[in-house]
């Protein structure tokens, strides 16, 4: 079980006393989004970060992705300071961020293309991940021809095909309908079980977090600080929507996380 | 096409054949009206030539090779000049759009020159470098440069930042960000700039050839008018129209169809060209 591996595991990402500030030079404003955050993301764990809108979740992801630098404190991967974006840290965005001018196949093969993998090799590898995302039929289609759920599966395939060390997902299922969301969550766990990888999953949905995670980190409303980390020790083979909602352990954990999130709102 | 909204809903193939049928009918109607007006007005051919006179002039210009030569000259001048203006417009549009330094350095100067129409430059260019291709090249690429530059700039400024972030997390270098995101994302705007610029340039070419050339469609029209060969003038005018139609059908539309429409960046347009 992943949680067992966690206790003795090594951190993949280490965040120490990190403060993140958005600076708007034109309006000479600065906005503290994350304050004094300390958090470890363990190798191959599935960590969910929950917190109300505007509490700094996306900003936290930006710092790990390397889009912005901490004002104070540090963020490291495998002990090394993160200074810029790189292929070792993949991101799945809420807006999918597929390139509209490339087919699903070319989108999924993109990271390999950047690395100079020859066309035949990268397309073969991309097709494996496309099959894994159950998109084989849609490989030659353009993003605008796909449904929201298919686009998000393509985005996940694109990130995984690039074999990053950590996959970060920023509210990836927020823009799809409720029914699709449930199946995407199950699909994600299936794919993750077959491809163990460190995952940082950001969401404002407590249910989603408890369903997916090994651990759930709850942030306080902005500026975001770590409120508490809740271990989710529900076995992986019990993570199915048709049964889990009546599992007392799931209900108890969900209510506990919910209380942590709501407590600070009221 | 005033009724293109309704036609939008029909399958593409049907729409094309319908539009073509209507286009042909339109041309025939114009020819008919022209012939009727000749009968009614009844002036000497050098003043108001009939379709028949123009056809005769056309045949003569084909036989003695003048028309082919002039068309080739005009097309060549046009292609090279538009290509030059397009390339420079894209390069400077990217520079200004992507770098604050270049934007501050060039922004005002370019806006200043934008206001000076190319027609104002032609006499000066003739004095400096004389009649002929260099003058035409500079004048026409000048006309294409500005709309391409400003549209490229808009394209670059409206790129979704998330697309750039996405390819950076996939490991793209700065150059790869340019080729995989920035250029394709700016392409619809670049095409708009090219369309506008190519249209201006076409008018500019005819004008420049009237002043600064001894061949080409502009010269044909100018020469025809000064020697009272009105039928030749009309041949030149019809050739202008045909050349533009051809360019739209064979160059601009196919590029748009193969790129921005297939990518879903814009919806297929109606019948304007
Ligand atoms: N580019 C930005 N410039 C200025 N402020 C920003 C920017 N992005 C986010 N913020 C601010 O930072 C805070 C955290 O935002 P964000 O990280 O997007 O929160 P979340 O993802 O949890 O909803 C918010 O107050 C937001 O207004
Ligand atoms: Mg967010």
UniProtKB/TrEMBL annotation, chain A:
A Pfam family this chain is assigned to: ABC_tran
Keyword annotations from UniProtKB, A to Z: ATP-binding, Nucleotide-binding, Transport
Start and end residues of each ABC transporter domain: 15-246
InterPro entries: AAA+_ATPase, ABC_transporter-like_ATP-bd, ABC_transporter-like_CS, ABC_transporter_ATP-bind, P-loop_NTPase
Keyword Nucleotide-binding attached: yes
Molecular function in Gene Ontology: ATP binding; ATP hydrolysis activity
Family listed: Belongs to the ABC transporter superfamily.
Annotated protein name in UniProt: ABC transporter ATP-binding protein
Source species of the chain: Sinorhizobium medicae
Automatic annotation (TrEMBL), chain B:
Keywords: Cell membrane, Membrane, Transmembrane, Transmembrane helix, Transport
Keyword hit for Ribonucleoprotein: no
Protein's name according to its UniProt entry: ABC transporter permease
Family to which this protein belongs: Belongs to the binding-protein-dependent transport system permease family.
Subcellular location: Cell membrane
Any GO CC annotation of this UniProt entry: plasma membrane
Pfam family, one: BPD_transp_1
Gene Ontology BP terms: transmembrane transport
Protein topology in the membrane: Multi-pass membrane protein
Domain ABC transmembrane type-1, chain residue ranges per copy: 71-251
Lipid biosynthesis is among the record's keywords: no
UniProt-listed InterPro entries: MetI-like, MetI-like_sf
Membrane spanning residue stretches: 21-41, 78-102, 109-129, 135-153, 200-222, 234-252
């Amino acid at each position: 079980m992943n949680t067992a591996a966690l206790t003795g595991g090594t951190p993949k990402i280490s965040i120490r006393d990190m403060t993140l500030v958005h600076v708007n030079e034109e309006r000479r404003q600065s906005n503290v989004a994350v304050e004094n955050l300390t958090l470890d993301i363990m190798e191959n764990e599935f960590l969910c970060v929950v917190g109300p809108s505007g509490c700094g979740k996306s900003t936290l992801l930006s710092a790990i992705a390397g889009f912005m630098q901490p004002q104070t404190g540090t963020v490291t991967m495998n002990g090394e300071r993160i200074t810029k974006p790189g292929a070792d840290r993949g991101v799945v965005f809420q807006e999918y961020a597929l390139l509209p001018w490339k087919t699903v196949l070319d989108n999924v093969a993109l990271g390999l293309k950047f690395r100079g993998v020859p066309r035949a090799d990268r397309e073969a590898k991309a097709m494996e991940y496309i099959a894994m995302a159950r998109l084989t039929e849609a490989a030659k289609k353009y993003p605008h021809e796909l449904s929201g759920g298919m686009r998000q599966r393509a985005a996940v395939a694109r990130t995984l095909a690039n074999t990053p060390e950590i996959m970060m997902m920023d509210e990836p299922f927020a823009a799809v309908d409720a029914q699709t969301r449930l199946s995407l969550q199950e699909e994600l766990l299936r794919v993750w079980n077959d491809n163990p990888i460190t995952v940082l999953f950001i969401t404002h949905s407590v249910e989603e977090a408890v369903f997916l995670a090994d651990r759930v980190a709850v942030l306080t409303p902005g500026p975001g600080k770590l409120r508490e980390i809740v271990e989710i020790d529900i076995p992986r083979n019990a993570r199915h929507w048709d049964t889990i909602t009546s599992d007392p352990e799931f209900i108890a954990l969900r209510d506990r996380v919910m209380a942590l999130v709501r407590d600070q709102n009221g | 096409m005033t009724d293109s909204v309704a036609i939008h809903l029909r399958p593409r193939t049907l729409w094309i054949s319908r539009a073509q049928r209507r286009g042909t009918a339109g041309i025939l109607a114009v020819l008919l009206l022209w012939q009727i007006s000749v009968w009614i007005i009844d002036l000497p051919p050098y003043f108001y030539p009939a379709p028949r006179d123009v056809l005769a002039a056309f045949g003569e210009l084909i036989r003695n090779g003048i028309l082919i030569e002039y068309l080739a000259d005009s097309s060549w001048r046009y292609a090279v000049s538009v290509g030059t203006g397009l390339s420079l417009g894209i390069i400077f549009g990217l520079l200004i759009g992507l770098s604050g330094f270049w934007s501050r350095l060039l922004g005002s100067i370019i806006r200043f020159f934008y206001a000076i129409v190319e027609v104002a430059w032609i006499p000066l260019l003739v004095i400096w470098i004389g009649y002929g291709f260099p003058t035409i090249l500079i004048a026409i690429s000048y006309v294409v440069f500005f709309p391409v530059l400003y549209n490229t700039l808009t394209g670059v400024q409206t790129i979704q930042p998330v697309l750039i972030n996405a390819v950076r997390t996939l490991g793209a270098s700065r150059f790869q960000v340019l080729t995989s995101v920035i250029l394709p994302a700016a392409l619809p705007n670049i095409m708009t700039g090219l369309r506008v610029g190519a249209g201006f340039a076409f008018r500019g070419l005819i004008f420049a050839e009237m002043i600064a050339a001894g061949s080409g469609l502009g010269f044909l029209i100018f020469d025809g008018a000064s020697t009272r060969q009105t039928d030749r003038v009309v041949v030149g005018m019809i050739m202008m129209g045909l050349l533009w139609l051809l360019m739209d059908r064979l160059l601009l539309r196919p590029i748009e169809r193969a790129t921005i429409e297939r990518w879903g960046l814009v919806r297929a347009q109606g019948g304007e060209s």
